[in-house]
Amino acid sequence: MFYLLFALFFALFLVAGYFTPLEITSTGAALAIAFIIANLYMYFKNKNKKSRD
């Protein structure tokens, strides 16, 4: 569950960076996207592992 919360946090970071005067850099956006994908991957990996047990 924590993986989804972290993915939501980084998604909100991207939204805040694009729609507010917060200056988000391309590196920051790339890292946020990478962390969103990694957290979603870990969530589904953990979910599949629990369903097998």
Please write out the topology:
Elements: H1 2-19, H2 26-52
Count of DSSP E strands?
0
Alpha carbon gap, first and last residue = 18 Å
Describe the largest sheet.
none
Pairing-aware structural class of the strands and helices? mainly alpha
**Proportion in helices:** over 70%
Q: Tell me, what's the shape?
A: elongated
In DSSP terms (H or I, runs of 4 or more residues), the helix count works out at: 2
Low-confidence stretches: none
- Strand fraction equals under 5%
* Radius of gyration over C-alpha positions, nearest whole angstrom: 13 Å
* Residue-averaged pLDDT: 91
Q: What is the H/E string?
A: HH
Could you characterize the architecture of this molecule?
With 53 residues, the chain is an all-alpha fold. The chain has two helices and no strands. The chain has helices at 2-19, 26-52. Helix 1 runs antiparallel to helix 2 (26-52). The radius of gyration is 13 Å and the shape is elongated. It starts with a helix and ends with a helix.
